[in-house]
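pasting for ref
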Amino acid sequence: MPRFSIIVPSHGAAARLSQALDSVLGQSFGDLELIPVCDAPDSPAAAVAAGHAQRDSRVTPVDSPPSAGLSGARNAGIRAATGAYVLFLDGDDLLLPGALAALDSRLTETGAVDVLYVQHERAPWWEGEPANPAAPLLAGAPKGGFAPADLPELTGVQLPAWSAVYRRSFLTEHELTFPDSHFTDLGWGGLTTLAAARIAVLHRVVVRHRLRRQGSRLNLPGPHQHDLLDQVELVLTRAAERALPAERIRPLFEQLFTYVLKTASRPERLPSGRRAFFRRAARLYRRHRPAGYRPPGGSLGVQHGLLATGAYSAFRALRGANQTAAYAAERLPRPHLLRTRLRYTRDLHRPLDPQLAVYCAYWGRGYTCNPAAIHAKARELAPHIRSVFLVEADQAHAMPEDVEYAVIGSRRYWEVLARAKYLINNANFAEGIVKRPGSVHLQTQHGTPLKTMGVDQAPYPVVAAQSGSYTRLLGRVDRWDFNLSSNRHSTQMWERAFPGSWEALEYGYPRNDVYCTATAADVARIRRHLGVPEGRTAVLYAPTHRDHHTGFEPGLDLEAFCEAAGEDVVVLLRAHYFYDRGPLQSSGRIIDVTAHRSSEDVCLAADALVTDYSSIMFDYANLDRPIVVYADDWEVYRETRGVYFDLMAEPPGPVARTPQELAAVFRDGSYAGPEATALRAAFRERFCEFDDGRAAERVVRRVLLGEPPEAVPPVIPLAQRVPAPAAATLVRS
């Protein structure tokens, strides 16, 4: 029997679940079983849990349907647990280093206790110092094990379930389970403390609870707020059945009704049924008020008095006065927009144009990437919608003749941004752009994340220093209504990197549609246009940007590579788009395609890809052609930029660490051999999940035409897709 069973519900936390599980498995004290509780066997969280189970036999995932809620998930974990002690961890929280060793030591000290309360820290989701709300609650505890009556203020209702450890036989003996519905921690905390005969305290932070940017679900408005009274009634009724002395009931009663009054005084949490909530709370108050109870002083005491008498009108008047004061504060003058945007301010007061869509790619680089692919499909499926592309002045000459555009910063630029219903971008619109009610913002992204993005960059000083204000970044994220994803990995990482209220569209990347629709004639035409000699093997070399470099550094002697790799090899050099402003610099067997507008064309022309850590590998994998990773500085890149997974452990093909190794895999043909094919197949299974050639259609139908999700064409399974054919050179080899 393991010493500890750690139960981790995962609903809504798939993006950070791996971190939570790793924080448990990385503990120095290893006598444990880890029980992730997943929604269903095919859920994103289940895939994370299954991966950990394959690597560590101590991991035993179980299922609990989303309809069962948090309480059902935890109860499922309890039923599966076999450890002597049970503790809980939310799917996006962390068990701090050394936590289990400290718990084991304390339990050995105190002897058998039913509940061991511990400290936890509430870490702000972004900025600010962590708080330790449990410390003052546990401060007066006796040194060893003690009876709950010795510290009646420790009622359990003020502590979440993951701020304690529970003896499993105690839970079984008293048939303790998490109460159904919302506010289950409050009910559970009260019930376990009431049933416990002996408890103890560990004055050490064990769990780091990471607050969500969206806040707690329990603070959201809705009928679930009435469930609070169910939990209050449950705990107070159980206390009455036990005939506990008034000394134990008083702190329990006061703490529970502090929660009740907090909800009753916030009308935004109770959009309906406020009077019914108050009246039921008043009945509970009078029924369970302990003998001789004296309310607290100040305004809270006034609220107690109004609740005791059921004076809803007076309570509402008090609440209304507070609401009026808050509204007055919101009406204070705010700074105006800059003079150059006065016209934009005026246009913001004009009606939205329901048939106007504005597109932008890479901060105005031109007609490219996902926005261009969506634009092209919209002209086919939604011709009634007028489309305007935003472009920098020095790139306007490269716009297709039949595409309407506006130069960034011009009068027309501000006008279309103010009036368009649909705004589509693969980066972000400018800082001053206002999200108007009724407008629809679609963030398409421009790659699958290997390197850290958004707020996940903060721990890496080199990139963080170049990223600007994260507060402003999140202000831009708050404009998003939809966020596009090409695989479940991306969905989870976007949730971490760009926390917001947007809806994930797992539709694939529209720019990658061409990898399933292009023909052999298209491939031949593109190769001729790029100047690839007939009969040659074209190797696309596409290194990513290095945040610790000041300019483009190829990282590889390409002429030497060509000589060593074979006489039929030519290289298509495509630098990161940060370095695409200069003219073509082709020479000999090196064809510079950095300035070519379409990365999709370049990929179609290539017989194989060599890259380091660029996201182009995820797109190119859709073609099912050989990929080689040239990782000469992986350790440096990983430490300076941060990555979401170990590419060296899960590469899309052979990994070369030196120029000699890279040339060798082409010279001996192993770049396209059976081992490389197997690696690529596993990579495609994970990262080419939704790119089936119909992504643009799905986006247009859902976002621009407003069709329901069930009407959108389903994703074609990977095994049924036919990638665009490679050139004859690769077929021959």
